[in-house]
Amino acid sequence: MKWPFAIWLTLQGIAVSAQERQTAPVNEQQLESQAERQEGLTEDDTHWQQLEYWQKHPLNLNEATENDLKGLRLLNDLQISNFLLYRKMLGPLLDVNELQAVPAWDIPVIKQLLPFVTVSNPKNIVERLGERFGHGEQTMLWRFARRVNNSSEYSKTTNAYLGNAAAILFRYKYNFKGLLQYGITGDKDAGEQFFKGAQKNGFDFYSFHFFARKLGIIQSLAIGDFTVGFGQGLIQWQGMAFKKSANALFIKRQGPALQPYNSAGEYNFHRGVGITLQKKRIQCTIFGSFRKLNTNLVIDSLLNGQEYISSIITSGYNRTLAELNDRNNVQCVTAGGALKLANNRSHLGINAVQYSFSKPLQPAGAAYDLFAINGQRWSNYSFDYGYTFRNMHVYGEVAVDKLFNRAMVHGLLASLDPKVDLAIVYRNISSQYQSLFSNAFTENSLPVNENGCYAGLSIRPVPRWKLDVYADIFSFPWLKHQVNAPSGGHEYLVQIDFTPNKYVEIYTRFRHETKWQNMADTSRAIQPLAPVTRLNWRTHISYRLNRVVELRSRVETVWYASNKQQNETGFMFYTDVHVKPAFKPFFFNARIQYIETDGYNSRIYAWENTVLYNFSIPALFNKALRYVINVNYRLMPRQVKQHSKKFNCLFSLSFAQTVYPSKPAVEAMEDAIEAYNKADFKLQIIFTKR
């Protein structure tokens, strides 16, 4: 009965053909939103590596599990649940165009998914086991990056570093369809020594991982470095996770509990052993980790000279003697687990994490740090749930810490109509609740000291038009950094997308945010609070001239006002050109950009492509011109031409520079922060063998 239906869908020609599939989405708007909130951007590029791998080895939808689909990070739980139910009721898909019949799946979602999925008959598990160690893809990456800055202040800073200004990354990885993966990563940051001094073994940071999936009852086995994600991130979430963005429905933390880690970030991961076991509907995850952390240690003269941790250092920099003295000076032992009962429509789970430090943690003494973690041991526990009923999915997590301070997040995803989707998130997190390695859907960077309610709506009124809106109202019951009293705020966003044809995509958005901060008033001992408002208006256009050339342009303005007075405004414009000839070994892109703002408060963020698996989102402010050039060349040597499908080498070169047309402006900025008057150079070589 499915064959006539599948043929009819194919003849409609709605879905994009394989030749028109677009490149991997990079979640640019989500990352730009995180940069605007100064939350710090993760160095974990695992998701980008996985998307690139799926482009070359598409995920078979007829054998994809719930965790496989969640790992794509392109579908929400309602869409995943509906797909699994559709496949269970009607059997394996006959064609990718059949996805149009799955409830809550629309054409834009399917187009975004097509580059990474396929439909074929599942292979026998015995055949795959025999292939794991011999038929995988091997990748070796070398990246060299260096910043050039002619300012006198930057020269003084770099001269204080023990190593040279080059940053070097090495990575080897073996991957067989995500079922078996292992590799090693070495990373040297700019200013760190290399094969000398404190780094006689070469790189400052080494990482090794071995990760296997679907070995009978063993769903995941992690040895070495890995990340852990439980529930909605209230007690543990180390993988990539986005917060508020124009994608109003992507609000839920989702993915397998264990994931391999092979990135350059030196903090947000565990090192040890983890395993996930599954028998029918019961799933159990346990892990143990032993790591050394970089911390600031303080000697307490009142306690016989006992040392305690005043703060944990997360940057991973070891460039100076002071930074080297703080390197690996505290041992951290972590253990945890999760027990989940699940089926296709619902799950219930309990989670626990415990930490033990070789030295005690003690708050620094600031008023806003009154409830920070204290002592050598800490623990967190939670209960999480999820349930799908027809066109509605509810989920949440309730957590407590060692002192039984509570936190909770509850959410709803609903398809109100084939053209209307709704998302709601409520969070209530005590000002005293504390956790480590956590990342929930909150306004704050960590789940602490926050109450709030978020509501998002995605509407597709007519073909080719889409409206995304959200509103978030939040409050902070206790003090925060640079906020000397309980405070709050609100944020609204409206974005309209228009796709008149397959060559043009346009979106325009308006974002409004108001928060309370300390008012700069030096005449008062205690600074009063004042509202700070930031307004952004952006219009972005992508135009594909043909299958080779694509143009992208953006205009953005920003208004910043403090204490009900308009203090600063900003403007930014850029144009990109992307050239990727078919059946040619080279492709490149370039950008020219103009920025003019009244100061740092009116700064603007914009995603920049660099080399593969890498990106940049610099803060742009003052008056300047900026250009970015990226060139890529894929080499397939003639002597191995007959094996070109098994071996290739990709050379990538990236160069970006900011030019200040006004000489007085350059002189005024010369003694400011090192972000001024800089040029960034990156060279990367990737060898791949299949």
Describe the structure.
The strands form 4 sheets. The protein has a 24-stranded antiparallel barrel. It has a two-stranded parallel ribbon with strand order 1-2. Helix content is 12%, strand content 48%. Strand 23 (549-562) and strand 24 form a beta hairpin. The chain has a domain at 547-648. It contains 10 helices and 32 strands. Residues 3-26, 639-644 and 663-675 have low confidence and may be disordered. The chain has 690 residues and is mainly beta. It comes from Niastella caeni. This is Helix-hairpin-helix domain-containing protein. InterPro entries: RuvA_2-like (IPR010994).
Structure classification: mainly beta
- What is the terminal-to-terminal distance? 39 Å
Shape: globular
Low-pLDDT segments: 3-26, 639-644, 663-675
Rg computed from alpha carbons, rounded to a whole number of angstroms: 26 Å
Question: What is the strand tally?
Answer: 32
Helix content: 10-25%
What is the arithmetic mean of pLDDT? 85
**Beta content:** over 45%
Work out the helix count.
10
Protein name: Helix-hairpin-helix domain-containing protein
Organism: Niastella caeni
InterPro entries: RuvA_2-like
Task: Quickly list its features.
two-stranded parallel ribbon; 12% helix; disordered N terminus; 10 helices; globular; Helix-hairpin-helix domain-containing protein; mainly beta; RuvA_2-like; 690 residues; 24-stranded antiparallel barrel
Break the fold down into its secondary structure elements and pairings.
Layout: H1 2-12, H2 28-36, H3 46-56, E1 59-60, H4 66-71, H5 77-90, H6 107-113, E2 117-118, H7 125-131, E3 137-149, H8 152-159, E4 166-176, E5 180-188, E6 205-215, E7 218-228, E8 258-260, E9 270-279, E10 282-300, E11 306-313, H9 321-325, E12 330-342, E13 346-361, E14 375-389, E15 392-401, E16 406-417, E17 420-429, E18 450-459, E19 465-476, E20 487-501, E21 504-518, E22 529-544, E23 549-562, E24 565-579, E25 586-597, E26 604-605, E27 608-609, E28 615-616, E29 619-620, E30 624-635, E31 647-659, H10 663-669, E32 678-689
Parallel strand pairs: 1-2
Antiparallel strand pairs: 3-4, 3-32, 4-5, 5-6, 6-7, 7-8, 7-9, 9-10, 10-11, 10-12, 12-13, 13-14, 14-15, 15-16, 16-17, 17-18, 18-19, 19-20, 20-21, 21-22, 22-23, 23-24, 24-25, 25-30, 26-29, 27-28, 30-31, 31-32
Protein name: Helix-hairpin-helix domain-containing protein
InterPro entries: RuvA_2-like
Organism: Niastella caeni
